[in-house]
Each structure stands twice: as C-alpha cells, then as structure tokens.
Amino acid sequence: MSGERGVGQAEPGVAASGQAPAAPTLRNLMPANVRIGAAVDGRLYAADARYRDTLTSDFNAVTPENALKWPILQPEPGRYDWTASDELIELARANGQAVYGHTLVWHSSVPSWVSESWSRERLRSVLREHVQTTVTRYRGKIWAWDVVNEVLAEDGKLRDSIWLRGLGPTYIADAFRWAHEADPDARLFINDYGVEGRSRKADGLFKLVRELRAQGVPVHGVGFQAHLRAGTAPNDATGNLRRFAALGVSVAITELDVRIALPVSTEKLLDQALLYQHMLRACLAVPTCESFTVWGFTDASSWITSHYPGYGAACLYDSDMKPKPARDALLHELRTRVTPTPS
C-alpha cells in the first residue's frame, strides 16, 4: 500500500491573518453523520488527565473496553456491580461523547458461575435477564450495542459455544429481540472479526444477517472489528461494506487497530498510516457507515502486545501520547472530504 497518496502531507500552520489556527482534531473534521470513537480504559479515563484530554479532544464517542462485559457487571448470581460502567458512561456523557455498548453476548465473556449443565430453560432465562437488565439500566445513555459478538467460526458457520450448544441458533435472534424490548431506540449491531473484506467468513456473516432481517429480527447494523496487520489490506473493504449496506443495515468500523511487527521503523509506520486511512476511506464511501472506532488510541494501553507476541505500536498515538503518522493520515483524509463542524 506504500504507493497510496496522502500520508505525511503537512497541515496548514498559519492562517491568512497571521494567527496560528487551532490544531485540527479528528472529531471536528469527521462528517456529522459519522461518530469517531475509541475503546477506553475506564481507570485511565478517570485518573489520567493527559489520557482524558487527548481522548476528549479527538473523539466524540467511546466504547468501554471491558467495563460492560458480563463477568464484570455480574460477578456473582443475583449481584450486579455497576461501579465501573456507571463512572465511565457518566464521564463520557459529561465530555459530550456518545457511548457504544460492548458487548452483551460473547462466548469469551461468560461469568464463571454460569453452567453449561443447566437446563435450556435456565440458561435462556439467565441470558435474557442479563441482556435486558443491562440494556434497561443504560436506556437513553448508550446509543448502540454489540448485541452478539463473534458468533461465527472462521469457515463462516456458527461458532461452537455454550450458547449454541445450550440454546441452539435461535439465541442470536432472541438476544436482539430482548435488547430491542429493553431499549427500542438503541441501534443494535452484530459484531465480528475477519469480515472486513470479502472472505468465506464475511460471506457467512452476510448470509446470517440476511436471514435474520428476513425473519424480522431487529438487526440494525453490522460491526467490522478490523484488527489488522500493517501492510495487509482487507480484500475489497469498500465493496464488502457496500454489500452489507444493501441489506438495509448500517455498517461500522468498531475495533480498528493496525499492529506492526517489532521493531518499529519509519516505513512500517507509513504502511500502518495508509491502512488506517484506507479503512476510514471505506467507511466514508458508504452512506450508512455510522461510526469509525479505533481499539484504543494510545500504545500505552493497547491490548496488542499481550495477545500478539512480536507485534505492537498499533494505535494512533505512541506510548508517550504523541500522534503518529496514522493520525495525520486520518486528518488528511477528513480534510479532503468534509468541512469542519463544531464539536
């Protein structure tokens, strides 16, 4: 992707009047109909002023990285702990940021006290209670939810999970209906990884969304995680987003990061920047793209190093909170497309 144009071009530094203009921010340049967000560490958001200031300057939306996951919300049966999620959501709202809820149903985030040995009726009852209690608490405060997350295997078939084994495939439609009952105004998404471009898994997701919509299930949008590797672009990302939009749903880039094989070099940072820009361009090319979210904005708190040995530096800002070429690339893409709007 190194032949693509636009990265590293200087932003104007001095206005005609001789006064230096305010530095451009991502949230000010983003089209009014597309939220720009970041996954956030709630503890850093509350305690670290530099983290908070950078986050609120560049992003008008946040996704709690962990605070809304079921094991954290309900560590014991019958006992909810809303402390972390309440604090994060109220802080975001105070800073004029919309909140995207992540995630209601995910096979990797099930409390230890939930047992697969339970009857189908008990499993279904517990799942319904979790979905409806959580969505009801934040009704009117969370604009969208990842209702089901990563329900597909790599071959595009439904993932083998506690929910598929215990409840059958209808759990997916049930979860959407339960969430819609709890907050009819919230946007409800199905979210997955490895589906950003045309692939066997993306084909499986397309079929699933089409079937759910045909059944009247309130699937409003499809989230494309986009955990990518520098220098490797998804196959026809724009065309892929467009075919999903043609089903009548919104689309969103929900968890974008671009990891780099260590050590970092200037060339690798430029390849990373081009891929960030490529994904933003794909989003902006689809009228129903509702949001563009990076999975963490600073390398200081990125999940990449703990999950991908030998890789890192995946975010828009480095560990010292300094902007990288990737952020410049997003700014350039936005400046060539839109007129700045107020925060």
- Integer-rounded radius of gyration: 20 Å
| The CATH top-level class label | Alpha Beta
Number of helices: 13
Distance between the termini: 32 Å
Mean of pLDDT: 93
Strand order of the largest sheet: 1-2-3-5-6-7-9-10
What portion of residues is helical?
25-40%
Sheet of most strands: 8 strands, parallel, barrel
Flag low-confidence runs: 1-18, 339-343
- The CATH superfamily title: Glycosidases
The secondary-structure element order is HEHHEHHEEHEHHEHEEHEHEHEH
For this structure, the CATH topology is TIM Barrel
Number of strands: 11
Reported CATH architecture: Alpha-Beta Barrel
- 3D shape: globular
What structural class is derived from the secondary structure elements? alpha/beta
Overall tally of domains: 1
Catalytic activity: Endohydrolysis of (1->4)-beta-D-xylosidic linkages in xylans
Pfam families: Glyco_hydro_10 (PF00331)
Domain GH10: 20-333
InterPro entries: GH (IPR017853), GH10 (IPR044846), GH10_dom (IPR001000)
